Amino acid sequence: MNILAVESSCDETAVAIVRDGREVLTDCIASQVALHREYGGVVPEIASRKHIEAIYALADEALEKADMSREEIDAVAVTYAPGLIGAVLVGVNFAKAAALSLGVPIIPVHHLKGHIAANYLAYPELKPPFLCLVVSGGHTMIVDVKDYTDLEILGSTRDDAAGECFDKVGRVLGMPYPGGAALDRTAQLGDGTKYPMPQPKLSGNPLDMSFSGLKTATLNLIHNCRQRDEELDVPSLCASFTKAVSDMLVPRTMRALRECGYQKLAIAGGVAANSRIRADFEREVKAAGAELFVPPLSLCGDNGAMIGSQAYYEYLAGNIGDQSLNAYATKSILGETL
Predict the structure, then answer these.
(1) Residue 337, in any domain of the structure
(2) Alpha-carbon span 121 to 18, nearest angstrom
(3) Total of domains in the chain
(4) 219-252: per-residue pLDDT in tens?
């Protein structure tokens, strides 16, 4: 089954063609990073306009690179939630028009399910059930992947997402957008024990997380050093901050893995590209005698291939949309409107 998949939830316009959920025939991406870097972050209106400019040509490019005709497309998939509403609408409307003109089904895909599915492309042998830590710019959660479309959230952040904190700290330090990637590179040169960082104590669900206090403490430390004209060891600050984030993510995820009784742990989302977090999980998962699945860097960020992969399993489960399909800025990975 050949699925033309569209992703436009933020600042990447992506169109891919995926066969049977596991084989990427082509994955074309038009990045807006250089454009938004001037503003230090994504400008929603500009992102939406750039999606409109890029998406039609990108779809043609995807077909050409896959050496396929339009008649060989069996379905059209699209990210319908969550994301910047104007950006998501561009993709949804394009996908609806494409599905209608081709006479094929349209398959709505939740963006975070797509991130989980990136692991199916990187690891053809990976099949549910398994545990997955989803860490992206807007979301942080521990998910029990019982089946391809049957998920349960075991724990999540109660405030800020880990990725948002990385980007915000990076921006305050004057790093180029996206701040998380620049912060990771800088942290590799520093001492992660130099600046003590807070670790919040949460009541209730022991698998829940919180990053707002850590973000505030880090920003206050930066501002105080600047106001007092004190020297700030930026690499060590980045390393200390990254260690604190990892210390929040890793123990809770490993606890969930033990409680589920699984031997397979996957990580998904843009923060999965962070070198310190990847290394910490590799160490802990190996010590637990389990298997770790982390997508290559090309599949950690937003891409169309991950949407095409998840779409195949949504199609098999009968989750097919129609021309009334709408876009949503916020929606739970379980399908509930927030």
Answers:
(1) no
(2) 9
(3) 2
(4) 999 999 999 999 999 999 999 999 999 999 999 9
C-alpha 85 chain-centroid distance? 17
Summarised one tens digit per residue, pLDDT across range 126-154 is: 999 999 999 988 899 999 999 999 999 99
Beta bridge partners of 331: 337
Buried b (16+ CB within 10 A) or exposed e, 252-284: bbbebbeebebebbbbbbbbbbbebbbebbeeb
**Shared domain check, 94 and 140:** no
pTM for the predicted model, two decimal places: 0.94
Sequential DSSP letters for 240-288: HHHHHHHHHHHHHHHHHHHHHT-SEEEEESGGGG-HHHHHHHHHHHHHT
* Distance in angstroms (rounded) separating the CA atoms of residues 82 and 333: 9
**Of the candidates 302, 317, 315, which has an alpha carbon nearest to the alpha carbon of residue 14?**
302
Two structure tokens written together for 173: 């330090």
CATH number of the domain to which 189 belongs: 3.30.420.40
Q: Is residue 277 part of a domain?
A: yes
Asked whether residue 67 falls in the same domain as residue 38, the answer is: yes
Identify whether residues 243 and 230 lie together within a single domain. Answer: yes
> How many other C-beta atoms lie within 10 A of the C-beta of residue 79?
32
